[in-house]
């Protein structure tokens, strides 16, 4: 079974990178959109572009999804606007590129709200209408990092992405038969504003990121495979090979590789 084209998709983190690519792809298919992020100017500019190019209906919801209760409050605003989303893309995310002990707890709590609590709240809020309709789509943007052993710096990131992976699988087990398809997407390295937004740009320098993908490559594969019910989606050939290797590698080797990779992205205090 393949899902019908959604009528209305809520996309978090639509002001740049993978989220903006989801918005462009959805608009090109004729899906009405609710775009969410903090940078309202960027969302408005994208909304105008998509209305002009495709005649799509686009709503802009400015929201800081790291604030306590922000996910549920956003869902209420979307529904108060008369929208009943049949697609949700939980894409907004961030990382903290410093050691755990040197990071204020308030920042860690905000990280958990944005990367874990908000996706759960939005899924919980929009799911009942999808179940009632007998169809719906939820895409959670996890990361290939979810399959690694973690490393210093970004202490919460692999755990948060592993949560999104397992949450997606459990929820899909619960609702797939009712016509709602839930997928976790595990990108490798993608050319977006992520490094700059999370303080890693200087660390990474001007070096081209090895095997980096364009956001639209991630989106096309994620959109197509979620529609046919794939639960775990690793977009692209090199990330697929890496994911397969990660699963069969002995833990000691996985730990060594995870820590070497993490070292590159860690920002020293
Ligand atoms: N880039 C990669 O290599 C890569 C790899 C694997 C997974 N991912 C995941 O892909 C997702 C998208 O990241 P990206 O690579 O596209 O990076 P990006 O270009 O930095 O996009 C991140 C998006 O999240 C939004 N966001 C961040 N904090 C927010 C907050 N507090 N409230 C609301 N929105 C917030 C940002 O919007 P505002 O700043 O306007 O709020 C932006 O639209 C993330 O979940 C990331 O973990 C990325």
Q: Describe it for me?
A:
The chain is an alpha/beta fold and 269 residues long. It has one domain (8-265): 3-Layer(aba) Sandwich (Rossmann fold). Helix content is 50%, strand content 13%. It has a 7-stranded parallel β-sheet, sandwiched between helices. α1 packs parallel to α2 (40-54) and α3 (70-80) packs parallel to α4 (105-133). It is globular, with a radius of gyration of 18 Å. The termini are far apart. Bound molecules: NADP nicotinamide-adenine-dinucleotide phosphate (NAP).
Largest sheet: 7 strands, parallel
Structural class: alpha/beta
* Rg computed from alpha carbons, rounded to a whole number of angstroms: 18 Å
**Low-confidence runs (pLDDT<50, min 5 residues)?**
none
User: What CATH architecture would you give?
Assistant: 3-Layer(aba) Sandwich
**Any idea what the CATH superfamily is called?**
NAD(P)-binding Rossmann-like Domain
For the record, the count of structural domains works out to 1
Bound molecules: NADP nicotinamide-adenine-dinucleotide phosphate
Overall mean pLDDT: 94
The helical percent reads 40-55%
Continuous helix count: 10
**CATH class annotation:** Alpha Beta
The multimeric state of the shown protein is: single chain
């Amino acid at each position: 079974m393949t899902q019908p084209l959604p009528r209305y998709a809520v996309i978090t983190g639509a002001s740049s990178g993978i989220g903006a690519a989801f918005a462009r792809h959805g608009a090109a298919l004729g899906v009405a959109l609710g775009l969410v992020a903090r940078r309202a100017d960027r969302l408005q500019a994208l909304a105008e572009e998509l209305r002009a190019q495709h005649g799509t209906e686009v709503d802009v919801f400015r929201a800081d999804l790291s604030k306590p209760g922000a996910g549920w409050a956003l869902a209420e605003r979307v529904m108060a606007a008369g929208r009943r989303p049949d697609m949700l893309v939980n894409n907004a995310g961030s990382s903290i590129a410093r050691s755990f002990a040197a990071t204020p707890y308030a920042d860690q709590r905000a990280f958990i709200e944005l990367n874990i609590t908000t996706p759960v709240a939005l899924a919980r809020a929009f799911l009942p209408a999808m179940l009632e309709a007998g169809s719906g789509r939820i895409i959670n943007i996890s990361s290939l990092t979810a399959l690694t052993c973690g490393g210093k710096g970004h202490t919460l990131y692999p755990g948060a992405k592993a949560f999104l992976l397992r949450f997606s699988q459990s929820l899909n087990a619960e609702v797939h038969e009712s016509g709602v398809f839930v997928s976790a997407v595990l990108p490798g390295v993608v050319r977006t504003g992520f490094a700059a937004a999370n303080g890693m740009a200087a660390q990474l320098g001007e070096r081209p990121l090895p095997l980096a993908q364009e956001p639209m490559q991630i989106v096309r594969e994620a959109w197509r495979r979620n529609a046919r019910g794939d639960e775990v989606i690793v977009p692209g050939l090199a990330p697929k090979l890496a994911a397969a290797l990660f699963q069969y590698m002995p833990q000691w080797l996985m730990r060594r590789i995870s820590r070497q990779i993490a070292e590159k992205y860690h920002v020293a205090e």
